[in-house]
Design a protein that fits this description.
By secondary structure, the chain is of the alpha/beta class. It has 10 helices and 10 strands. The strands form 2 sheets. Strands 1, 2, 3, 4, 5, 8, 9 and 10 form an 8-stranded mixed sheet that branches.
């Protein structure tokens, strides 16, 4: 049986091992230019309360906490208790200026959050989350954030574009099938996938919030062969799950690409986008 036929495309997608492997690429991709307007919004004379939705192992918190000044209180949300424990242990305990950072966890459904749940929150963060939500869920989340008057930093949402070098004739077909998989119906929910950034920006904009958008692409060079290989397996596996007729061509394609990664011949750019959302009362210079 082929590798693609024998594995679910979701196997290990949220495992600590995969999240740890991708963390350096995530950190390198995040848009640092969004931090200055965020710092200008956050209070400098009181504790900043930050809720990280779908925190995973806490990679966004590890990246962000040490880049923001002032006393910080992080509330980490995830459905997985093991990931919550990992994230809580891994966040830094000091901010950019040496102020203390403390961390608590909450196991809950982040799609059920509403404005009263965010009372007292300064900032809502999330990483690689929006594309896993539905249009109604993103709209409700936007309403909760704007209703609570807090900011949001929503990072690393896929936008559907992938560039592989050297190119292969099957690249576009695999990408199209993967993007269709990202927009699939699961559990009665139609996921947004690559449309998430546009849907979220529109939802926040309609509520009068200021929305700043930035590119945050993974740029995987030959020195990141193991991440390339794991990403390729998931990318092609999802494409085949969505379009089974791609087998066996996709199996041959995957083996070819894996060999290129192993030989340090492959370059990959996987495009994502970041959003910074500031409450309607705040004006940001262009």
């Amino acid at each position: 049986m082929s590798e693609l036929a024998s594995e679910s495309c979701d196997t290990g997608a949220y495992s600590p091992e995969w999240l740890s492997l991708r963390e350096p690429a995530d950190a390198a991709a995040r848009a640092p230019q969004l931090l200055e307007p965020l710092r200008e919004f956050l209070p400098d004379d009181e504790e900043v309360v930050i809720r990280d939705l779908g925190c995973g192992t806490g990679s966004l918190g590890r990246w962000l906490a040490a880049r923001l000044p002032g006393t910080q209180h992080w509330i980490l949300h995830d459905h997985d208790t093991a990931l919550l424990a990992h994230a809580r242990a891994g966040l830094p305990r000091t901010a950019l200026d040496g102020s203390p950072v403390d961390v608590v966890t909450e196991q809950r459904d982040v799609t059920a959050l509403r404005a009263p749940d965010l009372d007292g929150t300064s900032l809502v963060t999330a990483s690689a989350l929006l594309d896993l939500l539905t249009k109604d869920e993103v709209t409700a989340l936007a309403g909760a954030i704007v209703g609570a008057g807090c900011a949001a930093l929503l990072m690393l949402s896929v936008d559907g574009r992938v560039e592989l070098s050297p190119a292969d004739p099957l690249d576009d077909e695999i990408a199209a099938a993967f993007n269709a998989h990202q927009r699939r119906i699961t559990g009665g929910r139609r996921l947004l996938g690559p449309a998430a950034l546009d849907v979220a920006a529109t939802a926040f904009g309609r509520l009068g919030a200021t929305v700043l958008r930035a590119e945050s692409a993974w740029r995987l060079g030959p020195d990141q062969a193991e991440l390339q290989r794991q990403w390729l397996r998931g990318w092609v596996g999802a494409a085949v799950e969505q379009v089974p007729d791609l087998l066996p061509a996709a199996d041959v394609y995957l083996q070819r690409r894996l060999e290129m990664a192993q030989s340090h011949e492959l370059h990959a750019v996987i495009h994502h986008g970041d959003l910074l959302v500031l409450p309607p009362s705040l004006e940001v210079a262009a």
